[in-house]
Design goal:
With 209 residues, this protein is α/β, with parallel strands linked by helices. The protein has 2 domains: 6-132, Response regulator (Rossmann fold), CATH 3.40.50.2300; 143-205, Arc Repressor Mutant, subunit A (Orthogonal Bundle). The protein is 52% helix and 14% strand. It has 9 helices and 5 strands. It has a 5-stranded parallel beta sheet with strand order 2-1-3-4-5, with helices on both faces.
């Protein structure tokens, strides 16, 4: 079966940059650049800018709200602080503007479309530092890990995934049934999970069980 073609929309205040990026993309049979009226159905959004300004952030947030598609950012400069904001806006790929080529752009776009991402090594290092600070300064003091779960919640989830009911979980962990129910209620309420099955699925997706 033929691979599905990735629909990519390019956003830039600079018409020359936009046309250049679109030309790179059109050179590949794996990618199509739809007409503006079909932009809402894009699989990936490429945003090109000189710097990560407030206007660019606003555009990214709007794109994330309207389309929900992953973003590849082509920028002259981005700092570690900017990186966190970019990630919040669904940016999964960052390419230095001066180093953009057809091959690099296509690689980033296809990676984004398949759920992956591409970032320069120095920015990956910055992101890891921010995550470490988040873990040590925000999550750890509250007994949480990066998934937003406490060790006790993870224990309960593992047993739920094994098919145990509330009474059986209480027996395994030497808790009261009320304690187990409170753990489940607190976890599902805090993380906006619909029910026990949703909670187990969430834990599996985050790699906790």
């Amino acid at each position: 079966m033929a691979a599905e073609v990735v629909r990519v929309v390019v956003r830039s205040s600079d018409a020359i940059s936009r046309e250049g990026l679109e030309s790179f993309l059109r050179s590949s049979p794996q990618v199509t650049v739809p007409a503006e009226r079909e932009a809402a159905d894009a699989d990936v959004v490429v945003v090109c800018c000189d710097r990560f300004s407030s206007e660019v952030i606003a555009m990214l947030r709007l794109a994330a709200a309207e389309k929900g598609a992953p973003v590849v950012l082509v920028a002259d400069e981005i700092t570690g602080t900017d990186l966190l904001i970019a990630v919040e806006c669904r940016v999964v790929g960052i390419l230095p503007r001066a180093a953009v080529s057809t091959e690099r752009l296509l690689h980033a776009v296809l990676a984004a479309a398949s759920g992956g991402g591409v970032m320069p090594p120095n920015l990956v290092g910055e992101l890891l530092k921010h995550l470490e600070r988040l873990q040590s300064e925000v999550l750890a003091p509250h007994g949480l890990n990066a998934s937003g779960l406490t060790p006790r919640e993870v224990d309960v989830l593992r047993l739920m995934a094994d098919g145990l009911d509330t009474n059986e979980i209480a027996g395994e962990l030497c808790y009261s049934e009320r304690t187990v129910k409170n753990v489940i209620y607190s976890m599902t309420n805090r993380l906006n999970l619909r029910n026990r099955s949703h909670a187990v699925a969430y834990a599996m997706r985050t790699g906790m069980i």
